[in-house]
Predict the structure.
Amino acid sequence: MGGLGEGFTRGHTALVTYLMAGYPDRETSLAAMRAAARGGADIIELGVPYGDPLADGPVIARAGRAAMKAAPEGFGLPEALEMATAFTLEPGVSAAEAPPVALMTYLNPVMRLGYAETAKRARAAGVAGFIIPDLPADEAGEWLSVSDGLDTVFLVAPTSTADRLATAGAASSGFVYCVSRTGITGERSQLPEHLADLVVRTKEHTKLPVAVGFGIATPDQAVTVGKVADGVVVGSAIVRRQEEPVAVEKFVRSLRDALDTDSE
Amino acid sequence: MSDNDRTQPESDYSLPDERGFFGAYGGRYVPETVVPALLELDAEFRKASADPAFKAEFDLLLADYVGRPSPLYRADRLAKAVGLAEVWLKREDLNHTGAHKINNTLGQCLLAKRMGKKRVIAETGAGQHGVATATAAALLDQECVVFMGVEDIRRQALNVYKMKLLGAEVVPVDEGGGTLADAVTAAMRHWVERVNDTFYVLGSALGPHPYPEIVREFQRVIGDEMLVQFAAKGIELPDAVVACVGGGSNAIGTFYPFLREIPRERLPKLYGAEAAGLGLDTGKHGASIAGGTPGVLHGFYSYLLQDERGNPLEAYSISAGLDYPGIGPEHGYLSDEGLVTYLPVTDAEALEAFALLTHTEGIIPAIESSHALALLPRLARELGPDARVAVTVSGRGDKDMDIVREAGL
């Protein structure tokens, strides 16, 4: 299993698709992961349902709550890891249908399970890396000391100073996640004006690919972002369609096609 | 504010460290978007702390606007009723707006002014911090938005009305249980969005660094005054000092000066009263130390009520101000170190203490503060009838009339 960087080696703008694990139920979300892969996702970002999703907008927050309720025994990090195993290690699945998986989880579920135990299970599950939005790079020493073999993607934001871009760039592996705007995840009709500037500033501090997320909802917006960044992260717009894997595949393909058409 | 004009500390208590940790607890576990704002706040807080003009402005407001120093009152009828030699009440209930919260909101709103932010936001549970923030914002001509859970809006209608009168916008939070924890989350999310022009006035000694330290600095006036007042009365330090703990701001404001100024061998026993709600074994409580485990919530690492997957649990307490599933990080440290003993107090015990203070002294305490008062009979048994105990009465009970009436008092 390669790292998350593999998602950026396919000769086009990488498409990172966020799905909520366990929403609307385990089977459907697993089918939606496959559907996103078939539609052309280069990296699957698998969201872990959590009770206090500080960085997420209404669509993702609601999906997380629904996932926790849908499973009679509850649904969280252990279950998401189990799903990742099913996704990455299912026999007979082609490489194209199994792009690298990044787990997007808040910090406390990781602490609760234990940093080392989480890393161990993630490696066994074939997970490529982690995105932990409430773990800034300067608090991540303990996690980084036990997460060998796993990439950790740190976030940078429009408010990040040069110092912090350097810290996040140096601590990250796989790619750097550029938050397009201050605020929470969710679809927006307009992309912020200073996005290109932020990506350029980030690239001054890292050789890793830079992907942009938060608020990207349409193929046109993906294309705009793709002109400045190495990758595009789409979340709420996919989760909104997640109850129907067919709709996920179609939507992801429309993003993929738009990005590819633009680069031709 | 600055320490140079205070007596040299006799203990070596100097936490948090520069990264905001009290031992293992504290830290800054927040989305990157707000980290630069926290660093800026930290830098400005240190500058303000070293600026005599800032201290003078703050102290003048505390004296002439809040009405400080708040009295240290010897409650003899209460002492007799609970079987102690002396009980001293630190009367934060007599502050302007009726609770200790105003100490912190004036400090933070002055910091906001210093940082050029014309807009402040706050979370509130019982509404005391919301009212205190709205009050400071009115005084300092700042736009004010307060996030409050729908359940608390129902329980604390009077405070909601007060905040609106004071010119604040009250945003109902209809997530989770609709209580304080949900209000904190909503305020933090809003802050992430509006971090450039908005100052977050956090109401308790929790949240990401430097908030626990800032809140402690603005609340330490409680304990600082107690030390001066005991000395002025020519009385030995008490055998025990008690405060209620939700997030823990009045408690840390009470304890910190003792921890800092008094050598360990002379340090009074310090007690924090946690909300045990309907009882620890019912699962309906807010006692993070007695019934929780360490974890991260709202940007800091401390004791937390959480499920086996790390989701925060809903807290419960009759008092909206203690209805929070976590506790400030310094309290987590103080508990582990054995420097403070945290004891659970049920709704029923708090109501009983509420009635007792009202009947014996003619002082109607907040239902939060009643949790601290409820420890007095226990301390009488533990320390004996000759003991002298000080209790911080963090607020007055006007806001709780509907609740105690519903409870049948």
In short: The two ends of chain B are 42 Å apart (CA to CA). Chain B has two domains: 21-64+100-215, 70-98+216-406. The first strand of chain B starts at residue 21 and ends at 22.
